[in-house]
Amino acid sequence: MTYHVPVLLSESVAGLEIRPDGVYVDATFGGGGHSRAILGQLTTGKLIAFDQDADAEFNAPDHPGFRLVRGNFRFLGQYLKYLGYAQVDGILADLGVSSHHFDASQRGFTFRENAPLDMRMNASSPRTAGGILNDYPEEQLSSIFRQYGEINNARRLARLVVQRRAQQPFRSNADLLEALAEVTPRDQPSKFLARVFQALRIEVNQETESLRSLLEQSPALIRPGGRLVVISYHSLEDRMVKNFIRNGMIEGEAVKDIYGRTRVPFRQLHSGVIIPGADETEKNSRARSARMRIAERNESKEG
Asked: What is the CA 164 to chain-centroid distance, rounded?
């Protein structure tokens, strides 16, 4: 079974503009598809890959220039400092969840299989989907469904969850599907349930917080002229990346100096977002929602 099919593989690696002797980061190793493509262009260069899932270690290539770090990329700067790298030539992040997580039905990432409400990418993390459903206040649940799942009737969903858990705690995916049966649309049930599960997964794994940390660290970690390549699958994540590249901030407008000049750490390459072609989306359905942005580190720290 294929662990994961990398999305926008050739485009993302090309976006890094790899130097054979450079140092690069694959922030989301997964099945190692992007990493192998990067390693194929290195001679004396190095690649440091990150993944918090222990299963990813089985995919590590035997290459002298490769190092796999078992950890979340939100701690990228700390790990690089420990490994002796002040800056790197490029960072690639393919966000979201890998195909492997959906295929490993016992981990609860998909509504198509009954399993414990887990959804942890890092199995040692204390936060699970079941814990969120059983413990979070109604208002917080509503916010998660609305923000991470883009669900219009998020408040009603949260109310149903709270009513159900008062009678019986949530333990399995089947419990959640049963609780949401009356609000699950008959015409597009899969789309609706996928959004619910996506919202829970993002909260379980603190995915937006990790992305924020990665973006905010990147100006100090990427050398001038180096590249930042991010592939996202959720509109919230894409907005974060877009705004950071454009303004140097996750939210708000770029800061101007006393002369009214805007200084940002990155320069966006291409006219905007890059999406997969029809051939790729036909072969890999996960690619349909992919959005890639590429930026180059400006020559000075001030931008």
From this structure: 31
Asked if residue 100 lies in contact with residue 55, where contact means CB atoms within 8 angstroms, the answer is yes
Contact residues for 66 (Cβ-Cβ < 8 A; gap 6+): 35, 39, 46, 47, 49, 60
User: How far, in Å, CA of 211 to CA of 222, rounded?
Assistant: 16
Within 8 A by CB and 6+ apart from 288, the residues are: 276, 281
Question: In 3-state terms, what secondary structure has residue 150?
Answer: coil
Nearest to 169 by CA among 206, 215, 198, 128: 128
Neighbouring residues of 202: CB distance < 8 A, sequence distance ≥ 6: 144, 148, 208, 234
pTM of the model: 0.91
Place of tokens 């290195």: 42
Structural domains of the chain in order of their starting residue, each with its CATH number: 9-99+207-297 (3.40.50.150), 126-204 (1.10.150.170)
Q: Which residues pair with 227 in a beta bridge?
A: 90, 296
Residues in the chain: 303
What are the Cα distances from residue 109, in Å, to 40, 131, 210? 32, 15, 19
78-129 per-position pLDDT tens digit: 999 999 999 999 999 999 775 544 455 566 678 888 899 999 988 888 999 9
